[in-house]
Amino acid sequence: MVNNTIFSGRFTTQKLRSTVITDVWPQVLFFTLWAMAIVLVDRFTETKLAVNSQLLTVLGVVLGLVVSFRTSSAYERYSEGRRLWGSICVISRNIAQIIWTQVPAERPNADKPELAVSMLKGSIEKKSMINLLQAVAVAVKHMLRNEPGIYYEDLYPLIAFLPRYAYPVAGTDVNDLLPLWQASHDKTVAPLKRMDSQTLSRATTIEEVDKRTWTSSYRPRGFDEFDPEKVLPVVYSDHSLRPSRITPKTGFFDYFPILRPIKRILRLFQPKKVETHEQEDLIEPYSHGMWAYVRRKKMQPMDSNVPLQIILHLAGYNAFLLKAGLLPSAAASMLTSSIGNLQDTVYGLDRIKTTPLPFAYQAHLRMTLWLYLFFLPFQLLMAMKYVTIPATTFASFLLLGFLEIGQEIENPFDYGLNDLDLDGFCLSLQRELHEITAYHNLPPSEFCYSSWNQPFAPCDRRTAEEIIGDEKDEYHDKEIGLDRIRKTLIHNWHQVDQETRV
User: Fold this and answer.
1) Who contacts 279 (Cβ-Cβ below 8 Å, separation ≥6)?
2) 26 vs 257, 393, 410, CA distance in Å?
3) Which of 151, 271, 424, 496 is surrounded by the fewest CB atoms within 10 Å?
4) Which positions, given as ranges, span the membrane (predicted)?
5) In sequence order, which ranges of 199-305 are alpha helices (DSSP H)?
6) Contact in structure between 401 and 58 (CB atoms under 8 Å)
């Protein structure tokens, strides 16, 4: 049974912000007061303001269709984003399975002993490449939220081992940073003093982590403290690491959007602060939804494509496997196509993020809706009299609400309850990748012939160990053994078919 998200759990301000009430109530209040003024003027003065309602019917149908199209187009973006995230999880699982089960861990090389790889080194190599799949998902999450760079608590530990410098320039001592590290070093993170060996790379304390807000559906119930980064590698960094979730703060002006112009006016009279490197390093949370996205985009221009850089390392590993002949042709073809599909999926998510609906369409639709609601009381007045006031309130709440819902879900990659649970997707993929690498790729002979296996049940409930040990059984006969097995399987089918039908 699915819980009702409206009534399940305690009511919080975050739930209130996830509705459109806080966004539309000033407009609904305005049109309600306007309808009240129209009704009072018509009833208590000699001026008659009622008009024919034919135009109401025509425009109402057209406007309803347009608003419906606006909402459905926004939901298509939401649904497409969810589908593409599902593709990332499926492709990552497929790549991990190929690497873990198909690539040999121990690779002896008789011709060149220096190129031989032991079982331990091979296992470390494969696990490191699978960790990069988790890093791709986390990097995509930060890219979609317009959080540039690589120095995050949930990303940096996964890629800290990747090469940072290109080969030295001939005849000089200059080492150039590779694109994955260069852009983050120059634009997003101010250099800090190198930490000693006793200091973890995580810049926030445990107390600060406990206060962080997590809306993931994968959060264990009953736990107020949730810190999934504690299962990541513990590495050291000479840069401070940002939190994995830079959740936008909700302020007074978010609940009273009509007063936002006052906030901007007050900013003009505030003295400018001299920001230090450490302050510039942080992304300032601005508000909820699209405003937070626009604010982060304005402050931090996107640098190198971090998911692309990580996928390049996976493609390089695939090229190494092909060159060394370590994969069967079918597995090699599947791995190559999966890496390409992963890159296509990342591009699809980026396309959704960077392709909003045209501004002219949104502006014209909103102005048309305002004009419709402005003249609505004049057309309802003749038939509904005082009921015009609540009717206008309901109509404005209904139409403006759907318009704001389309605006809210147009970018489904932020932190709100209406957005996709990107953190939950990444944590789910992390668990699945670890589950794959926990699998032991043993030959069937080590587990199929045990006393725990009854392969021919329900007709023959002897264990595999008993069947193999009974050499006098007809199964062992070279002439009729195969026929005896086939007979048992046919009887199994008849019994299962009869017992499982209702």
Assistant:
1) none
2) 8, 11, 22
3) 271
4) 20-41, 53-73, 369-387
5) 206-210, 252-255, 260-268, 277-280, 290-299
6) no
pLDDT digits (tens, 9 = 90+) for 249-261: 666 556 566 566 6
Task: Please compute the mean of the pLDDT values over residues 39-51 and round it to a whole number.
Answer: 82
Query: Token pair 């057309």 is at which residue?
Result: 379
Please give the average per-residue pLDDT across 34-52, as a whole number: 83
If phi > 0 it is left, if psi is from -120 to 50 it is alpha, else beta; for residue 275 that is: beta
Query: Hey, what's the torsion of the CAs at 271, 277, 278, 283, to 10 degrees?
Result: 70
- Location of structure tokens 């003024």: 37
Per DSSP, what are the bridge partners of residue 117?
A: 107
Query: Is the CB of residue 133 less than 8 Å from the CB of residue 95?
Result: yes
The pLDDT-based confidence of 175 (bands split at 50, 70, 90) is low
pLDDT band at 265 (very low <50, low <70, confident <90, very high): low
Structure tokens at 250: 């909700």
Residues 365-414: tens digit of each pLDDT = 888 888 888 888 888 888 888 888 999 999 888 888 888 888 888 888 88
The 3-state secondary structure of 429-487 reads HHHHHHHHHCCCCCCHHHCCCCCCCCCCCCCCCCCHHHHHHCCCCHHHCCCCHHHHHHH
Contact 215, 200 (CB under 8 A): no
Q: Is 242 helix (H, G, I), strand (E, B) or coil?
A: strand
Q: At what angle do helices 329-354 and 54-102 cross, to 10 degrees?
A: 150
Name the token pair of 498: 């009869």
Closest CA to 22 of 375, 267, 260, 261: 260
Which is more confident, 331 or 192?
A: 331
